[in-house]
Structure formats: C-alpha cells, structure tokens
Design goal:
With 424 residues, the protein is an alpha+beta fold. It contains nine helices and 26 strands. Strands 10-9-8-5-11 form a five-stranded antiparallel sheet, with no helix packed on it. Strands 24-23-22-19-25 form a five-stranded antiparallel sheet, with no helix packed on it. The protein has a four-stranded antiparallel sheet with strand order 2-1-3-4. Helix 4 (227-237) packs parallel to helix 7.
Length: 424
Amino acid sequence: GNTTAYIVKEVSNGNLVDKQTFTSFEAAEKAMTTSSLVITQNDKIIKMTSGYVVTTNYVALNSETIKDQIAVAGNTEMEYLGSDATQVKVRLAGHTGYLKQADVTLIPSALVKGRSYYTNEYGEIKHTLYDYKTNKYSASYVYGKAPSFMKQGEKYFSWDGINFTNADGSSKGEAYNYYQFLPARAATQYTADELDQYIVGKLAEVESSGASIYKNATTKSKLLGLGSVLKEVEANSHINAMLILSLAQHESAYGMSDHAQNLNNLFGLYVYDTNPLNKKFDSVEANINELVEKFLQPNYITPGGRYTNGAVVGSKAIGFNVKYASDPFWGAKIAGHYYRAEKALGFKDANNPYKIALTTTAGLNVRADASTSQSPLFTFSKSNMPVIVTDTSSNGWYQIVSDKLNTEPGYISKDYIKFINTVK
C-alpha cells in the first residue's frame, strides 16, 4: 500500500475501523467531521479530537511559555492541544510547545487503557505511574500528606501536580505539597545529630529490604555522618540541609550508587546521558560544595541564574525540576524523601512551618526596605516565584527571605503576592 496515505479511522468499541483514505493531510482533516474520527499514517494516530499525548523517548520541549527548552523523559503524559502532519501541540504543567509526531504517541480518550493517577492512602498522597510501553501500572511513590479534598478510594488526575480533578472532572482541588514548594533558603529545625540518626535508621531500612544495591549500606553508604557537613552548608550557604540530604538520597540511591561509591559523587554532577564525564571528588563534602557553589547557588536559586525558575524542587511548572532532571516527577520524589525523614523524626518542620507565597507578576522588584527609595536588591523576571514571607506588618509591603545569598531580608509590594495553602 501507499505508506504516505492518510487514513481516517473511526474509534469503535476500543478498535480503529478504516473509513477513508486520502493523499493529503488537509483532505483527511476536512473529513474529520465527528469526534470519534482520527487520522492515521502508517498505523500511527497523528490527529484526534480529544485525548492526550505520551512521549516515546527523551525529548526537549521548546516552551513558548518560558521561552526555554525543557527536558522531558520518555513515557510522560501531556495535554493534547492539536496537531498537523509533522508536529503536535502539547501542554505540560502549563508550558505550551510543539513536539515532532515521531517522538510522541497520541491516545484518543476512547482508547485509554490506563493513566497515571493520585490517591489518598490513609491520609498520604500516592502517585501511581502508568507505563505505556507495557500497558501496565509500573511504579508508585508517596510524597506527603493528602490534601483534604481527596477522598479515600477515589482516583485523581493532574497535569502539573498542583491542580487535581477526579475521573469525570467534576471535583477540582488545588494543592501545593509543602516539601515540594518550600524555598531552598528555608532552614530545617533538625540538628546535625538528628540528621545522622535519621540517616542510620534509613540505611538500616534499605539494607534490610534485601536489594543487592543496598548490601552493607549501614557501613558503606557515603551518606554516613553527613549531618554536620549539611548543617554547615545550611549556615554558610543558606540552603536547607534536609533538602540537600533528600536530593542526595534520591540521586545516589542512599549513597550506594556507583558514582557515590567510586567517585564521591552523590548528585550525578557532570554525568549526562550523552557525556558520562566521571569526575572524581576528593570527598563527599567537596561534592556537596560543588553542587552548592557551581549548580544550585548561581544557576538555580539566585534570581537571573541560567536555570532559575523558582528556588524550590517543585514540578515541571515551577522550580529546579523545570531544568534539573527530565523526570517530570523529580521534584515530588525529592519531596517524598523530605516527608519520610519528617515522619521518622516527628514533623518538626511541618509543625512550625514557613509561610509560602507566590509572586503574581513578571518583572517584580525586591527591595532592601519597605519603600521604592533604593534601587532593587534584585528582580524576579518570571512570575509564580515561591517566596518565604517572614513579616506582614509593614504597611503595603511583605518582608521575605532573599533568594540572593545575603542575610538581610527583602521586601515585596503586597499587591503582587498570593499566599498558598501548603499541604503538610
């Protein structure tokens, strides 16, 4: 047959039935007169009325929203906004952009076999992931407390990990996970000793799982005794010690990965799919300092940094996750490590929480005092930047923790800020 032909098919009882064949995409498009019709080429659906899109491999999405490239892992679900013969318009966590037909699979609503979902399991939020290569539910993780609107036994869906709907779209709720949207400049209330105590307990737990990677974790893990190093970094660099520990646990398989064991590299620094540069660090402490001084501080936290999209681990919508990793749920998974540490240690941070707000406009100036008399400390070029609000008593201004590395607070006009209810 003609492999370039465009075949209009009808979705009927879970099957695709041939209707008409066309030599041009435009002609096929005109024949799509009802919502049950799709266009295929070489047995691949390339246009539909409604459904969603899944990446078949790692892709770089050019986000029209932030005018930047976003790395997206394979098997990522996205909203379908439309398509032509060569590309598909998608939305991922609020970012709109285009991907090549060759890099995605289109799944019409009527052919959905499974889809990733969120549930409330005994008061905790659990995210269950669907694998489109095997058509099976493949993995799940818990990453915090469930928001109050989530009922047990019901499935919820979200494109951004913030806005949730149930299966028929009737019940909607907004939820910001505290650990996912807690700015990095926060300090944890746990001491170095408590962090060490947690690390020892956690390593005993993973070792007892019997997984070969965790064999002898209690004696060999590169996380052992890091409490004082992490608290020192927190004091000097103003980056939350528990956040760095959560990142290390996630990126180094609890200090047991090959990179951690052989190269003292807890964070996979300089290890890219395309260029596995095996840089050896003199110590784990040197590796943590490199993470802070070469990556987080200049590029991810300081306003105007190369990858700055908010100083939180976040999601593909806001934070480090926009650029740090292609896994769209990297930020939520880091949050899960923080949450489990809190659960083990008694929720000291959640019980004495920071007040978190988002900025509501781009180009927002942060001032050194509650006035416009001095030039700005810095400017947030993007909107939706998470900030810690420390005082609301100045007339018309809110005092915030500065995202720039300094101990003095900043001030933002209260007209450009909205408090968020965090789930903790």
